[in-house]
Model the fold of this input.
Amino acid sequence: MNEGTLNLLVGLAMGLNLLALGSSRLPALIRTVAAQGVVLGVMPLLIEHETLDWRVAAVAMATIAGKGVVIPWLLRRAMRAANIEREIEPFVGYVPSLLLGAGGTIAAVGLARALPLLPEHSGSLLVPGAMASVLTGFLLLIGRVKAISQVCGYLILENGIYLFGLLLIHSTPLLVESGILLDVTVGVFVIGIIVDRIQRAFDSLDTRKLTTLRE
Amino acid sequence: MNPGPFLLLALLALAAGVVGGPRFPRAWLGVSLTASLAGLAAALGVLLGAPDWEWRGVWRLGGEAIHLRLDGVSALFLVLLSLVSGLGALYAREYWPDAENPSSAPRGRAWWSVLTLSMGLVLLAANGLHFLIAWELFAVSAFFLITLDARGRATRAAGWLYLAASHAGTLVLFAFFGLLAARTGSWDLGPMRDQPALASLLWLALVGFGVKAGVFPLHIWLPSAHANAPSHVSALMSGVAIKMGIYGLVRFSGWLPAPRGAAWALMGFGAASAVLGIVFALAQSDLKRLLAYCSVENVGLIAAGLGGALLAGAGNEAAGGNLLLAGALLHVWNHGAFKALLFFGAGAVLHATGTREVNRLGGLWRAMPWTASLFALGSLAVAGLPPLNGFVSEWLIYLGLFDAAASRGEAAGPAGLTAILIATAGALALATFIKASALVFLGAGRTPATRHAHECGALMRGPMLFLGATCVFLGLGPLGVWPAIARAAASWGGALSPVGEPPVALAMLGRAQRVLAVAAVVVGGALWHRVHSGRHRRGVTWDCGYAAPTARMQYVSGSFAGIVSGWFTWILRPARTLRRPRGLFPAKAFHLERVPETVLERVLGPVAAVFVRASNAVRRLQHGRLSFYILYVAAGLVAVGMFVWVGSLR
Done:
């Protein structure tokens, strides 16, 4: 029963990926990322069905708090400070992004079948979900020009890595998990400050204009 | 006599020189001379019969116990180092005074002590790791001395070129010492001729030490570095520093089993350096650059002698081999003495006139008689004319080569060819130094730069006089230095047996040289007397019928060297710009000629340009657009994934 619920949640996360690729408004994008963070945060509780130990619970709580609340809040603050609402002219348009994302998701499912997985993982959607999220993150990073959209891409990329990590949740020390989460939070915090500074200095958040300091 | 206390004294004195040199110039001179005398005492003690000195410390550096050794070969080089560094310190006091160089002179004193100390440690180190450390320190301190006056663009370029070439050589030496330690299981250095597996490593040593020694075509750094360094530094670099490369070659060709190919290479490249080095020297018009190229020639001579000795040792022709080895080792001293003398002389000219360009000089013998005479003496010595010291060592090398040529062994033909090449180089050296001395000191001054020339003071003249006397002594009494050379040859450790009794040829040569010297003095005195007896009418030189000749209508460097450079245009590749006088009243005409450093500018330069172009093409990927960078990462990830996937399918 847990297996089915877990797959349902991973499927939900994959759907949210496509939603992120298709949304042009930044608040919608941030909301999507937050929702994905909450979905991901619930997953460890479902995997650990025999005994609910405090470690897994702590990871789940921290993930939901970090990805679902703190990071979206930071992003929204940065967005308000920078005073922008939408991504006007992306490198890769929304329809092509969606097509690429969908194609990537299908390819990820196909590739996961070809991989030599452990028998207990072969029925789960975790691996294709992880690959699809990484791919979506890359697409957002490459295809968007506004710094905040790129941060969202980075977060989705990190979510994909987190999904991979769920396969190993019993063997990964708590310290590593919390370290990763802390890194991501601090990273977003710093980017939030930088976005504000870029906006003030250049009156734009277009990363295409930030090419002078290339060497 | 135990050399240990003397070496300790030298070490302490040099350390004091490094620390206190910048502040206290007088005290620095004192400790430098003390270090020189102590080093000289230690080295001469070993050369004149004391047993090898060996010391193992309890301290560790880089995990290895400190292990020093002073044997015949290191002592031979230590004599040269002590002598030239002491004289150079004396010379620098007048040549590079604090009053004119307030920032660079104090710095120069400290680096001078570091350089001397590190070269001494290279000679003493009996541990591969410590040898490398000392070698690196030596290379870096020499860089800071070359660029002592870093205001000139040419000096900075020369310094960087030196540093780059030097490190390329050091890289090869790292491979050499690393492999040596890996194959023998220890960093300790010593005779290892009984391990044939090490033979191939000698090739690495040839390249690594060849760069430092300046064997053609690895000499690219040498001309510009020696020309642009301050003259006392040039003297130390040319007289001693490049000999450290020779030291490495001598040391490891004696300690390692020598493959035949390496001996052939040493002889072949040595002979090639001898000829090409002096050809390039002849074509130069920069006095110090000319001297630098001449060092390439002399290094080639030493390398050819060493290669011949290795071949003779392998072919069981001990007599010829001993002569070659003795000639090569003696030439290390001889070249150190006369090249330091010539660089000191060139420094005196530069100091007096402010230019190294011989086409701007002329007629300086009136203003600088001491410098002119001593430079002429050095020129005779470097050209290998009897009765001076250059002839003695070249004579030994010739005899050894003739021995090999007459032996009908496999080395007979190449040995004969090498002898011919070296003789050619000798003839060209004579032409080169006649040109250099004549253009600088004879004739009339070509430009106003020569008008205010003045003789150098006692502190610059003293070292030159000392070196000139050394050249004369080594030339007239070759038997006197024979025990030292024999001692060094005995501890070489090659296949040759220790050289015992002095060869008969040397005793005869000494007598002939003395007779010749007396004859030269008598003839010279008679000529001088005739000229000054007043029976001759003085008139102007025949002026070719020009109504108003000027001093600029004299032969220049290019005209002296024209014919010989014409034979060697295939390697010299001179860049010429000619504008002939046209019409009845020609307004302007000129002939410019510049001889490039062929290996550097025509071979390495184009190769480097290809690399730069390729790198510039790759740099376009670095455009600053973040999205594309992430695309690169994604593409790289996919590529790695494909690679692994395809690999797993196989």
